[in-house]
Amino acid sequence: MILVTARSGFTGALGWQPLRSKEVTRWSDGRSSSSLSWWEGASGDRRFAGAEERGITSKVLWKMGGMTSRVSGGPAMSRPQTPEPARPAQEDSPTGTGGEDTGDGIQHSHRMLSFSDALLSIIATVMILPVTHTEISPEQFDKSLQKLLATRIAVYLMTFLIVTVAWAAHTRLFQVVGKIDDTLALLNLACMMTITFLPFTFSLMVTFPEVPLGIFLFCMCVIAIGAVQIECSAHRALYRQHILGIVLRGPALCFAAAGFSLFFYPLSYLLMATVIFLPYVSKACSWCKGRLVGPQEPPAHSVEFFTFDLHEPLSKERVEAFSDGVYAIVATLLILDICEDNVPDSKDVKEKFHGSLVAALSVYGPHFLAYFGSFATVGLLWFAHHSLFLHIRKATQSMGLLNTLSLAFVGGLPLAYQQTSAFAQRPHDELESVRVSCAIIFFASIFQFAIWTTALLREEETLQPSARFGGQEHAFMFAKLALYPCASLLAFAATCFLSRFSTAIFHLTQIAVPFTFLLLRLLVRLALAVLRALRGLALPTPGAEDCTTRSPLLPSPC
Amino acid sequence: MILVTARSGFTGALGWQPLRSKEVTRWSDGRSSSSLSWWEGASGDRRFAGAEERGITSKVLWKMGGMTSRVSGGPAMSRPQTPEPARPAQEDSPTGTGGEDTGDGIQHSHRMLSFSDALLSIIATVMILPVTHTEISPEQFDKSLQKLLATRIAVYLMTFLIVTVAWAAHTRLFQVVGKIDDTLALLNLACMMTITFLPFTFSLMVTFPEVPLGIFLFCMCVIAIGAVQIECSAHRALYRQHILGIVLRGPALCFAAAGFSLFFYPLSYLLMATVIFLPYVSKACSWCKGRLVGPQEPPAHSVEFFTFDLHEPLSKERVEAFSDGVYAIVATLLILDICEDNVPDSKDVKEKFHGSLVAALSVYGPHFLAYFGSFATVGLLWFAHHSLFLHIRKATQSMGLLNTLSLAFVGGLPLAYQQTSAFAQRPHDELESVRVSCAIIFFASIFQFAIWTTALLREEETLQPSARFGGQEHAFMFAKLALYPCASLLAFAATCFLSRFSTAIFHLTQIAVPFTFLLLRLLVRLALAVLRALRGLALPTPGAEDCTTRSPLLPSPC
What we know:
The structure is a homodimer.
Chain A: E1 4-6, E2 20-26, E3 32-39, E4 46-49, H1 67-72, H2 110-124, H3 128-132, H4 143-176, H5 182-195, H6 198-207, H7 212-236, H8 240-247, H9 249-260, H10 265-293, H11 301-304, H12 316-331, H13 333-341, H14 346-352, H15 357-362, H16 365-391, H17 397-410, H18 413-423, H19 427-457, H20 459-462, H21 472-497, H22 502-518, H23 520-538, H24 545-548
Antiparallel strand pairs in A: 1-2, 2-3, 3-4
């Protein structure tokens, strides 16, 4: 059955948005149906959603079959699928017009979502600034300073988690809100502004735990965010009640928390912790239930129409955009301080350094060193993340959580490098800071590795078709993701034996790893060739001559 | 002629990248040709580039005709175009394989370019921080403080310009470097790190003008950036000599400047100014030449193969990504300070405010007010920018320059709001700060309006087809872009007459404008209806009854 698909929403007037598009499909037997296809971000794999119009998304998996792929030629669509009968059009949905919605300024806007991700990544990382600005000199590193630093780090981690939960809620909401008009864009800006206050109100709560004001302001923010989300969903989404049920959970709990803050604040904190950890707790509960009770049947069709729930995968594009924002901010964190504070004063240069600018700048040597190391490490971690997500088709909830954890530790890298540089002058204390730095690098990179492992466990669902069958590209990916964990573990172990040279070891690692990345392909090929040679030696067979030729690994791109 | 296009690079393994894709086109007469099609970012309009493989882009405009659009159904391709004969395959380009390049890890990566844009937008705006952190209290606003502030503002504007020039060079380079492999991605990170040092070295130059070190470091950065760009172009681009000629201009001039800095530094500054302003001067010269000499014939085919030059339009997607980065950073600039500095100390609250957290926070009232205003204004300017670029298909050089100017003034908004809030307590000085704020808002928004006007002057080239024929959407766009200029002009004028109430006027404007944006569509429709009614009254004709019905304006989406 030849299928001609007119991808009207795509190359249409409002531009090509990889988030949503509308297709008018003409079957060769004369039927015409309109569907809102849902593209998996930039992955190229399509999941078609059922007969929907005007920005209302349903998630009925309406598989169009392999025919479309023959026309478009995409290898990703070569899986055979049985076409299901077209579902009748939903109520308020005009039949296939084939053109974009007009007159109400409705558009697809992945740019708006990218902008939101940029804002949210800035807000998520805002509380690193007090951490990196904590004046730590090796001589004064006493208990109270340690406590202050620990408090600030805890505040950073909690606010990072809180803003990530808000970002995930935003992502889920806009996965069901199909199209965006002007009003929705403005409401989204209001939502963003409210989210930007969460870190500050959290800091207030931490500094003044018994005062109700902090709790009250935090809960007001959450309620305001919920109200805006309800307004957003009112515009565009189907099954409003189901959405409301989910969107209202957080604000309702916070309303109760605000009330309790006036006379019994520990309960307020408990309720707020529930709000923050609820998505993860809920997911863990359903996983346990699945293990105990056994796999459940998919829900009935009426519910299947709408699956806006906490267990749906995150949009891969938004995960990438949010991660890119965090990586960019953390990478440039230290240069902000260098540009602002480390330009020597002309008077100081004349008086203290007798006019020698070089001497004045060399005082700041550790700051520059810290910046180089921090940028190089964060940049290479981004590079590994980028390569990883090229292979990934869909980001599941567990992968999202691991990504969040990885990003949280990435945020600690500037502090790690600052400490290592600052403590380098004191041979006794540098050991501890070098070890802490190695630990941070290890955790930031091991969670990335865990994302890949998680993806491999559910290959058919999460990986790109071309990356599914092992081979050389898997070896490259493994090498890229394992490099930093191994390097940091080696450095940590080396400091146990050669504690006197811990700084030198650390700097050596910093220099060696980027070069290893550059030569990675060469090294992996060498390693594979050596493995093959060893295998050939171990198992001599008549076919052993074939081992010397290039083994039939699937040549898939990286 | 029926054309079946297999969009292999598209839904292919590496995902769908709206920047590049490879198409194998089978003409109905049996010819087969492979082309690298170049998508205009997210606009959906396609410009096909000539027979290229393996990441080498040429810009021969190989128009494929409207046939492709019939298959894909995109209305944007309905312009009739004559197909030109296929050009023979370039030297090292294998004929149509139809699959992605393999084994070398070559991929399309608009994510890498977005990440680069994020980094560059952070670096471009880094020197706002000293400006907003300048301690200005109304009592101490004397000459020396004014001079310091003016110097810092000048440094910010110059570094913004410098980084924008670097960003534009990066954009042009990656418009010809088609595909990106691991090595290129790592080289790009090195390029980014070098660019991050430009603001610091510029600050050094400004603080120590006669010392050669600042000039030397700046020139070293430019030379290093040039070296990395040459290395990037070596990998992937055709017509290397032509690229080298352009890429090497900046570093060569800077090399000369570094040499001169040792004995005659004014010449160094002249050479460096040439490097920074060269693109704009070159463009202005060619425009003047065009006016004097008359329109020139397009160059011969051999040069046409490669048009990596300073007059090609910028990639719209990169303009949007860079602008989004700047808007996001400026919008959240003040909350960074609030989160870090404006959490009251518990001791202070007990001693100075007798335990009243509300009193302690109200000291920071102006900071919160400044943040609200700043976020709201920047957010709404982003919203206008977003609506503007939905209509735009291609960003010309002049539009890019106007965008840069607009973004530079947007960066001044946090300072404007800070001053307005800080000076509000002193009725005599507030007038000046309110006027300065109105001026900054006016310039930030008028340059956006100028982008639209420039686009209208060359409609066929710059606007989306659907937005080309005037109508209601033009009226909406005009209203959106004119709102801030008019509001700020009105406020400025009002302060001339009612100077006593200047703060109140300013705050009123701040509140009124967001609401006006929300009601904009309604207001524009009302205005259009009034205009039609007036026209109907002025020219009574038998057809006047038709005026009351909806006029046949092209209902194109916003």
